[in-house]
Design the sequence.
């Protein structure tokens, strides 16, 4: 579907609706996570379900957009914003509850902000596409945060070490891919200079 006979995909398509729904779910997720200071297991399960649904739509919207030829500038802009908003809400919420060290939140948020700013600065020299490492980073961040959100660790002793293992891997990928993107940006800028 296109507007005014142009070949550009219509902005209000299913992939973009999914992206917008993810943005709408972010404050709903944050409220569910923080109700009763995060101690009510039913609200934690609700927060987990909302987080999981939002994370799954991240995968679906991109696949649908490419498969249907509905990739839009709006989608390219809003998709990473929705991702960062969801991850950021989980990080800040868990740190606020005292379940995740603030330094972990600071490292991840700093990396995401720095890479976003860097991508905007070097945009005129070329787009830095998401790498496999960057995609793996997102998967491990989502899995680690989901394990922290889900109240299972209260019931099962081994769940604590598992969630910390996922978090350490996510942190290593966060820093490693951040350095890799910085090098790509430096090379792109040097090549155009």
Sequence:
């Amino acid at each position: 579907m296109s507007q005014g006979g142009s070949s550009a995909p219509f902005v209000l398509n299913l992939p973009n609706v999914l992206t917008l729904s993810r943005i709408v779910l972010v404050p709903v997720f944050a409220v569910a996570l923080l109700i009763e200071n995060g101690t009510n297991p039913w609200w934690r399960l609700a927060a987990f379900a909302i987080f999981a649904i939002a994370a799954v739509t991240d995968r679906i919207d991109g696949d649908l957009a490419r498969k249907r030829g509905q990739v839009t500038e709006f989608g390219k802009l809003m998709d990473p914003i929705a991702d960062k908003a969801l991850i950021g809400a989980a990080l800040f919420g868990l740190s606020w509850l005292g379940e995740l060290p603030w330094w972990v939140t600071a490292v991840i948020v700093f990396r995401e902000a720095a890479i976003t700013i860097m991508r905007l600065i070097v945009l005129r020299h070329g787009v830095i596409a998401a790498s496999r490492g960057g995609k793996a980073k997102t998967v491990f961040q989502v899995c680690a945060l989901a394990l922290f959100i889900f109240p299972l660790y209260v019931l099962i002793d081994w769940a604590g070490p598992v969630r910390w293992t996922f978090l350490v891997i996510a942190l290593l990928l966060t820093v490693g891919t951040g350095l890799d993107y910085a090098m790509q940006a430096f090379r792109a800028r040097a090549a155009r200079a």
In short: Residues 14-192 form a domain with the Four Helix Bundle (Hemerythrin (Met), subunit A) fold (CATH 1.20.120.1760). The chain has a mean pLDDT of 84.
